[in-house]
Amino acid sequence: MARSRISPVPTAAAPGRPLKRAFFARSVHEVAPDLIGATLLVDGVGGVIVEVEAYHHTDPAAHSFRGPTPRNLVMFGPPGYAYVYRSYGIHWCVNFVCEKEGSASAVLIRALEPTHGIAAMRHRRGLHDERALCSGPGKLTEALGITHAHNGLALDAPPIALHAGKAEPEIAAGRRIGITKGVELPWRYGLKHSKFLSKRF
DNA sequence: CTCTTGATCTTCT
DNA sequence: GAAGATCAAGAGC
Prior knowledge:
single chain, 3-methyladenine DNA Glycosylase, Chain A, 13% helix, 26% strand, globular
């Protein structure tokens, strides 16, 4: 009942090959767009990644810009791990660490198209509308049950599962959202016509 | 549709 | 003390 119209072409393809940790051992600016269309599951609940942002320690908007702190320590470690931080004292946000140890680069996961465990996500979010379940970095962590307990976990081992998308998605790029430094850098990537973005491109 | 505000953790000044 | 990689609810147009 939430949606009166549904696209005749489902964007949620069946999960492909598992992404190994080596997938993340390259430039964050290559990994970020390549993650669009991949499926992220936590304990079997999740969906297709439709929006991300890239951050690097040379970028004034990045948490790692001013060096390591207790919060951002995972960003300075090896690639292929989850960096989870508290946002505005209320929400959790999840990143995938990239490149190499010490490079302190990561991809912020900003939105998913829900495909697995939608009933569980609706319960956790207290919402019915699928479009609102995972359309923001704080929303999707609540829907998937991601908290500080997931900080530092490997991305290729339970409870986390990542699978490549099937086809080449149509990628859009633009300015990142909610930052005040490095605003001109076009390091937000998304599935161009998805209805599950935090904001349209 | 846009704009404003409160919630309240981590880091920085 | 202030700002921040956010969200939801309420007021106003």
